[in-house]
Amino acid sequence: MRTHKSTGLDAGTAAGSAKPAALELRDVHMVYRGAVPVHSLRGVNLTLARGESAAVVGPSGSGKSTLLHLAAGLDRPTGGQVRIAGASLAGLSDAALSGLRARHVGVVFQQFFLMERLTAVENVAAGLLYRGTRSSIRITAAHQALKTVGLAHRASHRAAELSGGERQRVAIARALVGRPTLILADEPTGNLDSANGARVMELLHRLHEAGAALLVITHDRDIAAAMPRRVEVRDGLIISDSRAAIARNTGEAANTQNTQDTVNAENTGRHQ
Ligand code: ADP
Ligand code: MG
Fold first, then answer.
1. How many CB atoms lie within 10 A of CB 183?
2. What is the pTM for the complete model shown?
3. Nearest-ligand number for the alpha carbon of 60
């Protein structure tokens, strides 16, 4: 299969490493067609290494959610290249794209997007539907994921019966149950009070520490400040990227590990 990690797809691959970047956007454009076409992204370049984390900031309407949709493989760009875990979306059928998403991507939205009439554990198990996993295994994994987010005791409650903070933790469990390469979150704390927001961010950071790359869109200055890398979007373009300032050489991917080591060393205190 084209999406297999060992296919040698080289985009974003560090020298000597077989693993491509978790996410790579090259000159990505997105035009929403309609009576008045909207050029939502106008040439975006972004690489997120395996296990790297970054915040995406920028004013409303600047293209952040569009970027996340493309990074999740929920949409295809109208120009340029999107690669998820080394696989270019351009060459994939819709079915293969669903498979790629199921294997590599977990998404968390501001509005949670749970299936209201299903229980928490059923919602989480749905995160494995497109992986072809057997039902009994899906349910076992879903219970485990709910335990991870501290909601084992809510497993058989319907989503409609849960609080906002609990819903977002169920959504995180659904995102993590497939052990994705890449976790994408669009304003994950936007509908939560500060205590629940902090808990959600702590869970996302924990996932990141377990090895997933993490991209979080946020309006929250404190959340953005706590991330090792900040990418600023305006009018469909990235106008600043704090990693570009750190990585001095053009051998960007090769520098990633060093950058990440520095970041990890800086952050060691924070997560303990
Ligand atoms: P942000 O998340 O930064 O607020 P968005 O990516 O949602 O920005 O939107 C960027 C631009 O694209 C806006 O002008 C928005 O109106 C437009 N847009 C977003 N989604 C669609 C869509 N599905 N159809 C048409 N226009 C869209
Ligand atoms: Mg948005």
1. 24
2. 0.84
3. 1
For the chain, domains (ranges, CATH) are 5-267 (3.40.50.300)
Mutate to test the pocket of ligand 1, among 32, 68, 232 (most ligand atoms within 8 A of CB): 32
The average confidence (pLDDT) of the chain is: 86
Q: Name the residue at shortest CA distance from atom 27 of ligand 1.
A: 32
What 3-state DSSP class applies to 11?
A: coil
Containing H/E element for 230? strand 230-234
Determine the atom of ligand 1 nearest the C-alpha atom of 217: 2
The angle formed by the CA atoms of residues 73, 106 and 46, to the nearest 5 degrees, is 55
**158/140 Cα distance (integer angstroms):** 18
**Ligand 1 atom closest to Cα of residue 66:** 6
**pLDDT: which is higher, 14 or 165:** 165
Residues 250-264 have a mean pLDDT of 41
Average pLDDT of the residues in 12-39: 84
